[in-house]
Specification:
Elements: E1 3-5, H1 10-13, E2 14-16, H2 19-24, E3 34-38, E4 43-48, H3 56-67, E5 71-74, H4 78-85, H5 100-120, H6 124-143, H7 148-151, H8 161-180, H9 186-198, H10 208-211, H11 219-226, H12 228-238, H13 244-252, H14 273-288, H15 299-307, H16 315-326
Antiparallel strand pairs: 1-4, 2-5, 3-4, 3-5
Helix pairs in contact: 4-5, 5-6, 5-8, 6-9, 8-9, 8-14, 8-16, 9-13, 13-14, 14-15, 15-16
Pfam families: HD_5
Domain HD-GYP: 139-331
InterPro entries: HD/PDEase_dom, HD_GYP_dom
Length: 331
């Protein structure tokens, strides 16, 4: 071993690598430093540096260490590990030892990357990959709805379409679980998650220079942006997506209670619950995102803005948003 250290408490300093997780690593070059616990001396030492080549004999030995529960990585290295593990999201349902905030970050990375792939190539195969990971997230939250509190603390401020989609999904799920008291059907969670992710799908058809324009939008620019809803509808139709919850999120997230929204200028009761919820989550995520034409606002400021706009946004949902963002997550 390269070194011996006394971690004090293994669970605080190290994260155990199970055989399942080890099997997800590249065979010859693990992505993180590997540590092995030696029970004879009660110490943990580094066995291999991340990226170094592991011989076939070493692979056999490392596999044995994992089976014996003696293989670890440093918790401080989990971000590198999270990028890798986000490609094998199903392990989050069967592995123990992760802190809730670590799981939340892995989910964020996985869904951000899946969404980016889909936006780049909106085809059936990329949609199915996205749906698979969304189903895993829905299962995770359905098992314990309180877990969504950790997910809402992974929001990113650097704006792009994929990040905005995931931010909107996490806030929207938290609102829905608050609204229902955590009593939800897993199938609804999947549909809502997809609807929140896909709500702005049509924006890929809007030229980037218009989406990020810093100066005042002229009429033709605004019309181009408003057409993103119809563009999104056409894209999901071509993929055979007919889920009403997905369509409500996509079609109604820019409708406003006072009729000032678009594309159909709906009023109050003509806007569905999912449409209202997506409108709040979408607007909140846009406000806290860092855009070329405005700096990211503080989450408290964003909540105040939406609560103060009760003519356009559902007051019951903005009140729930305030409760969601006031939660203090503890380990």
């Amino acid at each position: 071993m390269a070194e011996n250290t006394d971690p004090g408490s293994l669970s605080e300093t190290y994260l155990q690598i199970s055989p399942n997780i080890l099997a997800s690593f590249p065979k010859f070059r693990p992505p993180v430093d590997l540590y092995v616990f030696d029970p004879a001396v009660g110490r943990t030492g580094r066995y291999l540096r991340g990226g170094e080549r592991l011989s076939r004999e070493g692979q056999t030995e490392v596999a044995r260490f994992a089976e014996e529960g003696r293989l670890f990585l440093l918790r401080e290295d989990y971000r590198v590990y999270a990028e890798h593990l986000s490609k094998r999201l199903g392990l989050m349902l069967v592995e123990e030892g992760f802190l809730p905030q670590e799981v939340a970050e892995i989910f964020f990375l996985a869904l951000r990357d899946r969404m980016a792939d889909f936006l780049d190539q909106p085809r059936e195969d990329t949609f199915e990959a996205l749906r698979r990971d969304v189903s895993i997230l829905a299962e995770y939250v359905w098992i314990d709805p309180s877990r969504v509190a950790f997910l809402t603390h992974t929001l990113e401020r650097d704006y792009d379409l994929a990040v905005h989609a995931v931010n909107t999904m996490l806030i929207g799920l938290a609102l829905y679980l608050r609204l229902t008291g955590g009593k939800v059907e897993k199938t609804v969670l999947i549909s809502l998650s997809l609807g929140l992710l896909l709500h702005d799908l049509g924006m890929v058809m809007v030229p980037r220079f218009i989406r990020d324009k810093e100066q005042f939008l002229v009429r033709r620019d605004r019309e181009s942006i408003e057409r993103h809803i119809e563009a999104g509808r056409n894209m999901v139709r071509r993929l055979g997506i007919q889920d009403p919850i997905i369509l409500e999120c996509m079609e109604q997230h820019h409708e406003r209670l006072d009729g000032s929204g678009y594309p159909e200028r709906r009023f109050d009761k003509d806007i569905s619950t999912m449409g209202r919820l997506c409108a709040v989550a979408d607007s909140f995520s846009a406000i806290v995102g860092d855009r070329p034409y405005h700096s990211a606002r503080d989450t408290a400021d964003a909540v105040r803005l939406l609560i103060g706009d009760g003519r356009r946004y559902d007051p019951a949902l903005t009140a729930l948003l305030a409760r969601v963002m006031d939660e203090r997550v503890t380990e």
